[in-house]
Amino acid sequence: MNPIDILQNTFGYDAFRGNQAAIIDKVVQGEDVLVLMPTGGGKSLCFQIPAMVRAGTAIVVSPLIALMKDQVDALAQLGVRASYLNSTLDGAMQRFVEQQLLNGELDLLYVAPERVMTPNFASLLRQTQVALFAIDEAHCVSQWGHDFRPEYIQLGSLVEQFPDVPRIALTATADAMTRSEMVEKLRLEQANQYISSFDRPNIAYNIVSKNNAKKQLLDFYTEHHQGDAGIVYCLSRKSVEQTALWLEQRGINALPYHAGLPTEVRQRHQERFLKEESIVMVATVAFGMGIDKPDVRFVAHMDLPKSLEGYYQETGRAGRDSMPSNAFMVYGLGDAVQLRRMVAESTAPEAIKRIENHKIDALLGLCETVQCRRQTILEYFGEAYRGTDRKDAESVNCGNCDNCINPPETWDGTVAAQKMLSCIVRTGQRFGAGHVIDVLQGKDNPRIFNMNHHELSTYGIGKELNDAEWRAVVRQLVAGGYLSTEAGSFGALKLTGKSAVLLKGKEEIEFRKEVKAVRQKFDKKSQARPKMELEDDEAALFEAFRATRLELAREQEVPPYIVFHDSTLKEMATRKPRSLAEMSKVPGVGKAKLERYGELFLEVILEHFPPEKAVSKLMDDESVVVLDNDVNWQETVGDKVEHLHTVDQTRYWLFEGLKPQEVADKRELSIGTIYSHCVELIQLGDITVSEATGLRDDEIELIETSYKSLTDEDKGRLKPLFLVLDKRYSYELIRCVLAGLES
Ligand code: ADP
Ligand code: ZN
Question: Would you say the CB of residue 13 lies under 6 angstroms from ligand 1?
Fold first, then answer.
């Protein structure tokens, strides 16, 4: 089989995405490849398909033991021969898998990095044919990254031990430093590099200023994500627990997850998150690495992540299935202060502190920017982003972030900043934002009078702005590095080296206009709404599909998305296939899943769109085919349906691997009839000419070129071609080839 056939038949997708085809081609040819692709970009296929094309077993090295079983289960659902070896298997089971490997019964074997380099495993590998090595999460080789795995470094010696086996290393980590480390440590100097855009166009970015974080989260959830799966990130264990409880009390299926919980609780919660449909996981950063769930519809940040890398990685867990998803973050003064202080207080060497500060600048910059969030993120990773909707050369518009959809207004904040800075100086740089703002606004509270702050020249000079607006000024000054807060001084604001230029009027400053302190509403029309855009009755069908899927998943003890992804169910709900043939065209429905689940889901469609409805539709749409288990319906629509249905059966048997003659025998029909079905199926694009005819590619080509050399008149009939080809190919075979040529 060639890669595209495998993609279509086994995985049920129409076409390769981005660099997939090129990458697969190189690996199939035995070359080394380094793949940088964002989460959800489709990395798995890049090694899974070559694993099936090349002789022998592909060894997939992955640090994520918890994921191996899911991946193998998912492959099993597609009819792919895969297994895994890791410490969760008992001795007998391990020996069984090793035997499978030795018997050449596996296309893919997933193993943990620490096992690959053991003498035992190496000797096993020498007794088998290794198709390729896939090194997943290859950034784990980087000593600077937070996912560093020492065993990964040893993987570099694979090149000496197995010089003829191609290696493909994959990661979703974008930065150049990690990339060069991967090349060096994994010895990929000769590898072809494929670097995809790191844009995640299906993720809508929203960053709003914090006023009541929990309430803002709840509003966001109820407005956009009822019943969806999502992740809520909090900074501390305590806030994880409080937030989870708070959501739960409001009837939301929320679970806490942090490193302080007992292992079995964590495992149970993670399991539930994977296996149930609509869990909201409230977690610290401890949660996420290796979460492969494709249908996480939103990621919300209640506190700032540590860096832009962290933000990108965490939000990236949304929407792996490419369906619209939201990244939502609330951000306030406290967050900015805290981040700045963390670096100031750290005992790290100055060089490291400088890097850290730079990272914080970038993150706070993202929060405060009035430009496209997507552009800001991608440029940080060194990628130029030009937007999808360029109105002029200057402005980039991605159409899917808050700043692009509702461009924020700015105002000249120079005077306000000067007032703020001088009031901080006058009050002795000993107070936090609350008191300084009170002085600026000329409040008459006891604290002010006790300290005689009502006698300061800055008392009452800032009545033009309200509390929230002044806090935004402070926040933006902290974010911009014009103010700092020191350790042990309870959030007291102090001037920095940068402040002087502002105070002296040598620099102007623009602020983002605060959205009035009510809940931020998304623009309903243009804002990405993660709810799939389905008609009401289709939405009901989609829900029914989900229920069926859940049942199937429970029976097999696998996560629901292993049965079908949301994106597949959504397509199914809009297309409403009426036959297995039509069902097979839905993206994500490959041959194995068609056989396993096709009928069941057709029944669900039938229940929701019963025959009467469908028949009237059928009258308009001739291509609609009927199900065999509804006799009434068949009788109503008559012969045409009967006919199409029989084609369907032929298709089924061909897919089972029978030859046309065998199908004819089995169905007690003439071979001519079966070939006429083949012609239709080829025209539909359901089967290829070679599948139908068993002809070699060169034979097909011969027939095609002979046909093309005929005069127009001769092209209209079959006989001339038959004769040109010395009567070697039957009329039926010729018809099939011509059908292929047409389509
Ligand atoms: P990654 O490992 O890069 O995060 P995956 O390999 O899990 O991404 O793929 C992400 C999703 O995209 C999966 O649901 C996968 O089935 C789907 N996918 C991958 N390649 C294609 C393709 N060529 N056409 C359609 N869907 C695809
Ligand atoms: Zn944008």
Answer: yes
Closest ligand by atom to 203 CA: 2
With the most atoms of ligand 1 within 8 angstroms of its CB, the residue from 17, 19, 60, 195 to mutate is 17
Return the DSSP state at 407: P
Distance 130 CA to ligand 1 centre (A): 24
pLDDT in tens, 286-308: 888 777 888 999 999 999 998 88
The residue whose CA has the least distance to atom 2 of ligand 1 is: 43
User: pTM value?
Assistant: 0.71
Q: What residue's CA is closest to ligand 1, atom 5?
A: 42
Using the predicted structure, report yes or no on whether residue 65 has a pLDDT greater than 90: no
- State residue 612's pLDDT score: 55
pLDDT of residue 504: 87
Rounded to the nearest angstrom, the gap between the alpha carbon of residue 382 and the centroid of all alpha carbons in its chain is: 21
Name beta bridge partners: 534.
none
pLDDT number for residue 681: 85
Q: Which two tokens stand for residue 211?
A: 């006023």
Is there an atom of ligand 1 within 6 Å of 16 CB? yes
Q: Are 610 and 633 in contact (CB under 8 A)?
A: no
Residue nearest ligand 1's atom 13 by CA = 321
Q: Which atom of ligand 1 is nearest to the CA of 37?
A: 3
Q: Which atom number of ligand 1 is nearest to the Cα of residue 294?
A: 14
Q: 536 versus 584: which is more confidently predicted?
A: 584
Using DSSP bridges, classify how beta strands 493-495 and 483-485 pair: parallel, antiparallel or unpaired: antiparallel
Query: Is 90 exceeded by the pLDDT of residue 718?
Result: no
CA torsion through residues 36, 39, 41, 45, sign? positive
- CA–CA separation, 633 and 622 (whole Å): 15
Task: Collect all residues with Cβ–Cβ distance below 8 Å to 324 and sequence separation of at least 6.
Answer: 202, 204, 528, 529, 530, 532
Which residue puts its alpha carbon closest to atom 15 of ligand 1? 42
**Ligand 1 probe mutation, 68, 320, 568, 586, most atoms within 8 A of CB:** 320
Best CA proximity match to 210, nearest among 524, 515, 522: 515
Please state whether 642 falls in left (phi above 0), alpha (psi between -120 and 50) or beta: alpha
Of 608, 732, 725, 611, residue with least CA distance to 679: 732
User: Could you report the per-residue pLDDT of 482-534, keeping only the tens digit for each?
Assistant: 888 765 556 688 898 889 888 888 888 889 887 653 333 444 333 444 445 67
pLDDT of residue 487: 56
**pLDDT-based confidence at residue 346 (cuts at 50, 70, 90):** confident
Between CA 717 and CA 726, with CA 721 as vertex, the angle to 5 degrees is 145
